[in-house]
Amino acid sequence: MNEPTAEGRRLNRSFGWLTLLGALLVIAGVIGLVYTGVATLTSMLLFGWLLLVGGLVGLLHAIESRGTNYFWLGVVVAALNIAAGVVVIKHPEGTAEALTMFAALLFLTGGVFRLVGSVVVRGPQMGWTLLQGAFGLLLGLLVLFDWPHSSLYVLGCFFSLALLFDGLGLIALGIGGRRIVSMVAGRRDGGQPHTGRTSTSPEGKQK
């Protein structure tokens, strides 16, 4: 019984860390929704550093694989990532404005295509597709009409919502995992979760 108990404790500890990480992400997401401007700049800086580090790693990988047919392609892609990362880190506000404009255009085109496609196809999900298209079109127009001021909160809002929902998912996974481990441990102990009470016979004698 010692090995399953030790394994259960290890799993409980792991799921506990997942729950803690989820709670931290939820807190970060809520703070980001309150301070969307800070969240936007933070997301841009993280994006820039990811591009820069990814470009450096890609460049090292390309140097290690020199002599192959894909050497120069790897060098060019890595150089582009490094250059893009440096630009994003040095100009996070301008990058946020450009990405916000790009997101607004994506919302607009996606909404128009959904509206037109739902009217032309007239499938069983026509009403839902129309609603999605109208929502995307309206969101794109709102972001576009308030640009460039919308770049101060749109990306930060999306980034914070992603943190919030990821955190909630990790919390649910951690709590659910701990419950499953407890159920399995209870079945191994005798078919029922351990309650800490001593079982007695109908005559009142201890077993």
TrEMBL record:
Keyword line: Membrane, Transmembrane, Transmembrane helix
Positions of the UniProt region annotated as Disordered: 186-207
UniProt key word RNA-binding: no
Entry superkingdom: Bacteria
Start-end of Polar residues biased regions: 195-207
Membrane as UniProt keyword: yes
Record Pfam families: DUF308
Residue ranges crossing the lipid bilayer per the database entry: 15-38, 44-63, 70-89, 101-121, 128-145, 151-173
Signal peptide extent: none
Name of the protein: DUF308 domain-containing protein
